[in-house]
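Supplementary notes for students who missed Thursday's class. We covered one full example, reproduced here. Read the sequence, then the structure, then the short commentary at the end.
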Amino acid sequence: MIPMNEPSPYQSSEMAPQNEVLLTDSGYSIGEGQIALAWFLFVVVATIGGAVAGAFAGAFIGGVLGGLGQPTQAMRIASALAGFFAGLPVSWLTFRWQVRRLLAKASATSN
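Structure (token representation):
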């Protein structure tokens, strides 16, 4: 039995910073702070960029269908689909940007 005044053998006094790339036994790992920042930037840029791209695509499709005399319900559905599909590339490019940024940080510290 361990006396109460001695530290636990399971306790570690070393606290690694959470916002830096950390060295582990299997290589380099990215801290939680960097992951949270990457996720935040992804959400903000993808949401705003996707909304702008979707608005332009939806407005274009709505204008074309309105000029052709299509019913409002058809314009609403077509504009929503066009907006969704216009936002997908923005989301993909933002995701790639964040993943590359994190991988670049991890590889820069491993050299």
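Commentary. The chain has a mean pLDDT of 80. Strands lie at 21-24, 27-30. If anything here is unclear, bring it to office hours.
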